[in-house]
């Protein structure tokens, strides 16, 4: 099995479940831009339009996870873990009304892990093989 580029904590999975019950299928995008900077943002699936300037990194708890290509250029050697903490972020992400916010924890891949990395795809070409 290839090394996943993005993981999720159990606490974040529980929050995703709450949001999915209310909003249906979900997706994540991490731009590294305005608002909370590098905070992952959760949207109803399809509410945030992704394209060739985005990279699909994989799925977390049934949700596609995208990152801007420019941000990925910096983070391509790190494994990301989506977590959740109490507190209100300054973004448009769906979890904000719950009094929590998603955040990224990261670590560098080992040399062995980098030999068998999960593939990435341009945001407009990702393999939407599994239902959300």
UniProtKB/TrEMBL annotation:
Matching Pfam families: DUF779 (PF05610)
Name this polypeptide is given: DUF779 domain-containing protein
Annotated InterPro entries: DUF779
């Amino acid at each position: 099995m290839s090394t996943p580029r993005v993981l999720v904590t159990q606490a974040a999975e529980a929050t995703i479940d709450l949001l999915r019950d209310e909003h249906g299928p979900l997706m994540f995008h991490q731009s590294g831009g305005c608002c909370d900077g590098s905070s992952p943002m959760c949207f109803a699936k399809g509410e945030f339009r992704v394209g060739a300037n985005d990279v699909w990194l994989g799925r977390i708890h049934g949700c596609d996870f995208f990152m801007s290509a420019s941000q990925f250029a910096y983070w391509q050697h790190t494994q990301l873990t989506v977590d959740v903490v109490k507190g209100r972020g300054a973004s448009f992400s769906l979890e904000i009304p719950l009094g929590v916010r998603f955040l990224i924890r990261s670590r560098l891949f080992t040399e062995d892990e980098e030999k068998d990395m999960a593939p990435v795809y341009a945001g407009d070409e990702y393999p939407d093989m599994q239902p959300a």
